[in-house]
Automatic annotation (TrEMBL):
Pfam families the UniProt entry points to: Pep_deformylase
Keywords: Hydrolase, Iron, Metal-binding, Protein biosynthesis
Record's keyword annotation contains Hydrolase: yes
InterPro entries, alphabetized: Peptide_deformylase (IPR023635), Peptide_deformylase_sf (IPR036821)
UniProt lineage: Bacteria, Pseudomonadati, Bacteroidota, Flavobacteriia, Flavobacteriales
Gene this chain is encoded by: def
Reaction(s) catalysed by this chain's protein: N-terminal N-formyl-L-methionyl-[peptide] + H2O = N-terminal L-methionyl-[peptide] + formate
Function description: Removes the formyl group from the N-terminal Met of newly synthesized proteins. Requires at least a dipeptide for an efficient rate of reaction. N-terminal L-methionine is a prerequisite for activity but the enzyme has broad specificity at other positions.
Enzyme class name: hydrolase
Needed cofactors: Fe(2+)
Organism of provenance: Salinimicrobium sediminis
Free-text remark on how the cofactor is bound: Binds 1 Fe(2+) ion.
Family: Belongs to the polypeptide deformylase family.
Name of the featured protein: Peptide deformylase
Length: 196
């Protein structure tokens, strides 16, 4: 089932999400709904706060990036095969010199900006069967994971912009929170929820 994506301005996007237990109610169904929602909006990642739940789950599928002509064969293979659910994740380490990449977010449609992130991460998480993993990722895979990880920490990519960039997009962000935006996927807007 495709769920509505929570828009910028909703307090759930600012909460540090809570860990969940293996017996979390309807977990498999929630994960399937998140996949359906992400694919329905042509995303490469989605975190539980983006569907209104302040819990530490996110999922990524980086295969759309594998079509980039400038990537090496190794990078393409890694991106093609990265389709995972991350539960109760913790980034243990981020390494290397920060690099810029143009990011967007399903909760913040029509805004894309260059964001600086470290190129390599080490992350510990549980998969959907609650098996524990500790893995390293780099390049675009690491970036997508960091973006989604930020969501479960209550951080948005716009928080990482310079104060000038933030001022330049302030009006657009206000319009998103008021529902004054056209998107081709279901969204839930905080201002409309209050009945304004």
């Amino acid at each position: 089932m495709v769920l509505p994506i929570t828009a910028y301005g909703d307090p759930v996007l600012r909460k540090k999400a809570k860990d969940i237990e293996q017996d979390y109610p309807n977990l498999k169904e929630l994960i399937q709904n998140m996949w359906d929602t992400m694919y329905g909006a042509y995303g490469v990642g989605l975190a539980a706060p983006q569907v209104g739940l302040p819990i530490r789950i996110f999922l990524v599928d980086t295969s759309p990036f594998a079509e980039d002509e400038e990537l090496t064969e190794k990078e393409k293979k890694e991106l093609e095969s990265l389709k995972k659910v991350f539960i109760n994740a913790t980034i243990l380490e981020d390494m290397g010199d920060e690099w810029a990449f143009n990011e967007g977010c399903l909760s913040i449609p029509d805004i894309r900006e260059d964001v600086f992130r470290k190129p390599k991460i080490k992350i510990e998480y549980f998969d959907e069967d609650f098996n524990k993993h500790t893995e390293e990722y780099d390049g675009l895979a690491a970036r997508v994971i960091q973006h989604e990880y930020d969501h479960i920490e209550g951080i948005l990519f716009t928080d990482k912009l310079s104060s000038l960039k933030k001022r330049l997009i302030k009006g657009k962000l206000a319009n998103i929170s008021k529902g004054k935006i056209q998107v081709d996927y279901r969204m839930k807007f905080p201002e409309l929820k209050k009945g304004r």
